[in-house]
Amino acid sequence: MTTTPTPPLRYVYAVCRPFGGVLPEGAAGITGEPPRLLHHDGLVAVVDAVPAEEFDEGPLRARLEDLDWLSATARGHDAVVASLTAVTSPLPLRLATVCRDDSGVRRLLDEGRDRFVRALERLDGRVEWGVKVHARKEATAGPRTPAGSPSGAVGGREYLRRRLRERDGREEARRRAEAVGRELHARLSAYAEATAVHPPQDSRLTGDAEAVNVLNAAYLVPRERAEGFVALVGEVADSDGVRVELTGPWAAYSFAGIAEAAEPGTGTAGPEPSGPAPEASGAASGPGGAREGAA
């Protein structure tokens, strides 16, 4: 008995307005092939044909538990969105937003049209920049306590004094970095039309054991203000025991939910992940997940 192959599904990376030209040469998505542009009623969906064996509802649930698969898919997703950012201001959709076919993609655009249009109007001509402020570990460590156990009453008192100095030095360095972060955030916010402050990153997750993150923020900045924004970050970078990290420009992952949240199960943009549904399914992506790795 011959089994009929299941037709490929449609993976949707982003929604944008119509723009002149095509995607930058070399843009490749999760399949390794360039995605295509599906135009519908004044909107454009950026789509890829993906195998149902991986992206249908049941297999997708299992795949989302596979960290290697998830990481590779997120990189491909973000590569497409980054290429779009070079030619337009896209609205990134969640990782693994999947529809049955082109008709399903059109329904996705129809059902989310008002939200998409409002969000695209807000994002037009704007990009996301990320700024992190770190207290350097060497600045937070304070004087080193000699190895070995203290001996005698005098040795014990000196040991405790040193430990207190170390603690005080760490706290003072952190307070200094936090003050730099607060001032920088206030000044950068003047360039931005919206800001998003994310939880500080754990150095165990970032792999940077030499710094303590005290500010992790995203800024929605008009392109014409970008030069001044970047220059301001450069003024305070890497000074007085503080390290400042600038990333971007990105597509506005942190601000993709500025329109109302989608109805559950649609897989469209919104602040909370939606569960898989027969027509579309989604999970969150972005700078915080794939790069850092969205907003």
TrEMBL record:
InterPro entries: GvpL/GvpF
Residue ranges with Gly residues bias: 285-295
Residue stretches of biased makeup (Low complexity): 262-284
GO biological process, one term: gas vesicle organization
Main location: other
Keywords: Gas vesicle
Segments for region (Disordered): 138-157, 262-295
GO CC terms of this entry: gas vesicle
Localization terms from the record: Gas vesicle
Top-level taxon of origin: Bacteria
Family: Belongs to the gas vesicle GvpF/GvpL family.
Record-given protein name: Gas vesicle synthesis protein GvpL/GvpF
Taxonomic source organism: Streptomyces fradiae ATCC 10745 = DSM 40063
